[in-house]
Write a structure and sequence with these properties.
270 residues; 10 strands; 3 helices; alpha+beta; three-stranded antiparallel beta sheet
């Protein structure tokens, strides 16, 4: 028939209800209740649940089942962590070693001690020459001459002079009473003595065999006043005896006395 259905508005007329063709009651043509025209509930228009639009599980587009995924470029977290531990350890060890070095005393930083230069050992003194044996037939005795002294025979006297001339040791023999006094008088000329003053006398023992002897000592003029003189008449047994005389100037020393004492101590029977 070409006309509108029954009950509709007449052709060309306004819409029913006293208004135009506006939005339905309650609002305009906005989004449906609960939101706009966004993605469906539960998410956007992403891949279906369970994965992306990749290949099928176990298919050709990924690694086979059971194998780890390929490593990405750059250092892994484990390597970074290991490097960090090494750095911390090195720094910590270095600081500890620095502390130990600072705390540990330096053995080389000691106060030097003074050591005086070593004194060279002096050479040993030259060996003293040994004395020679002086023998007598009457009495039958012998003794050692003073070592290094010069020997001279004057009549019936044996005379020994020290190298410096400051001491003289002489001997002779006798066998008659009173002869020793005569010999003592002659000694001054033999030994080069001036005036003699005897100040002390007595008895003693002389020689290795401790022969009985009578001695005397005093002063004399020998290389000047205040010289010393000593004598002993020694009886080794029998009529024959020996007279020993020693003199030294004021310039003499202990070495002269020691030399004569050694000679006297060596006196013995042959």
């Amino acid at each position: 028939m070409g006309g509108p259905p029954m009950g509709g508005p007449p052709m060309g007329g306004p819409p029913p209800g006293g208004g135009g063709y506006g939005p339905p009651p309650g609002g305009g043509y906005g989004p449906p209740p609960g939101g706009g025209y966004g993605p469906p509930p539960g998410g956007g228009y992403g891949p279906p649940p369970g994965g992306a639009f990749g290949g099928p599980p176990g298919g050709n587009f990924g690694p086979p089942m059971g194998m780890p995924p390929p490593k990405k470029g750059g250092p892994s977290i484990a390597i970074i962590a290991l490097i960090g531990l090494v750095v911390v350890g090195v720094l910590g060890l270095g600081s500890c070693m620095m502390c130990m070095f600072l705390a540990k005393p330096d053995k080389t930083a000691t106060v030097p001690t003074y050591e005086p230069p070593s004194t060279p050992t002096p050479p040993p003194p030259p060996a003293q020459p040994e004395g020679t044996w002086i023998t007598s037939d009457r009495p039958y005795v012998k003794f050692l001459s003073p070592p290094g002294w010069n020997k001279n025979i004057k009549d019936d006297w044996g005379v020994f002079t020290s190298p410096d001339g400051q001491a003289v040791f002489a001997f002779t023999t006798f066998n008659r009473p009173g002869q020793s006094t005569v010999k003592l008088g002659a000694a001054a000329n033999v030994m080069g003595l001036g005036e003699v003053l005897w100040t002390k006398s007595g008895y003693t023992n002389v020689g290795r065999e401790q022969f009985a002897a009578r001695f005397g000592e005093g002063e004399c003029n020998f290389h000047g006043p205040n010289g010393y003189i000593w004598y002993a008449t020694v009886d080794p047994g029998g009529a024959d005896q020996i007279l020993l005389i020693y003199t030294v100037s004021t310039a003499g020393n202990k070495s002269h006395k020691d030399a004569v004492v050694a000679s006297l101590g060596s006196l013995q029977r042959r």
